[in-house]
Amino acid sequence: MSRTLVVVSAGLSSPSSTRLLGDRLAQAAARETGAAIEVVELRDLATDIANNLVTGFPSPKLGDAVETVTRADGLIVVTPIFNASYSGLFKSFFDVIEAGSLQGKPVLIAATAGTARHSLALEFALRPLFAYLRADVMPTAVFAASEDWGASDGPDGDLTARIERAAGELAAAVSGRPAAPAVADEDEFVPFDQQLARLGITSSR
């Protein structure tokens, strides 16, 4: 069964350094796993996310995006850093995902900003968020400041080296778990007893 890596990008511009970082991480991980890559661009869902927060009901487009994320074998989540934390759009998207949907799912966290001063946001904002969601957060987080693009060295090595290390961790985590099940046919009938059994409940008649 093929595996799928999903990039969730909260970049606001086009082209976006946030999307570029997500693409590079996904390509590096896919080389090791052979997984297919899908991308969820949150800027295209901004209105749908806001409406969902107010009404409690997702649009078909947002519902498809949530389904893509929750069924992924591994996630790469990338946000620009605003005011020392993830963007509101990024947080709002994960607020509309049902609790428990990301439990145990391998997640690689990454971020971009204009200056390296924001790099600690990965540790004090993104990592606690996905730990709370009970995801399996990779040890290496990747931050890219403006000066990192094209740089060959730095205190933690160049950006390419960080990407390869983080992608290797994600690839190992994805390869070590069963592939996500295929989407069931919407018309498939599942008897009520079987539905209860899947929840560990024994029916009585």
Automatic annotation (TrEMBL):
Residue ranges constituting the NADPH-dependent FMN reductase-like domain according to the UniProt record: 5-149
GO molecular-function term, one example from the UniProt record: oxidoreductase activity
Alphabetical keyword list: Flavoprotein, FMN, Oxidoreductase
PANTHER family listed in its UniProt record: FMN REDUCTASE (NADPH)
NCBIfam families reported in the protein's UniProt record: LLM_duo_CE1759
This protein's name: MsuE subfamily FMN reductase
Organism placement in taxonomy: Bacteria, Bacillati, Actinomycetota, Actinomycetes, Pseudonocardiales
